Predict the structure.
Amino acid sequence: MQEVDWSRLKAHELRALAAANAVVILPIASIEQHGPHLPVMTDTRLGQEIAHRAARKACESGRPTWGLRRKRRRRSSATRARC
């Protein structure tokens, strides 16, 4: 299985993914108090886990993943990316 957590990759591995127009799934979540029973990082951890699962599912399904790539003329176009 291919690594989906890019924080574990080395610089040369990230450059190879960038050259292949890899799609980035960026989890965005809040850090807030949930009471004495949960840590403040609960939403962040949930967002990260959902992003990891989505990336794994996209790679395992064999279906193409589509993303947006900005061209020089400042227009966005859909591009196909590989896992």
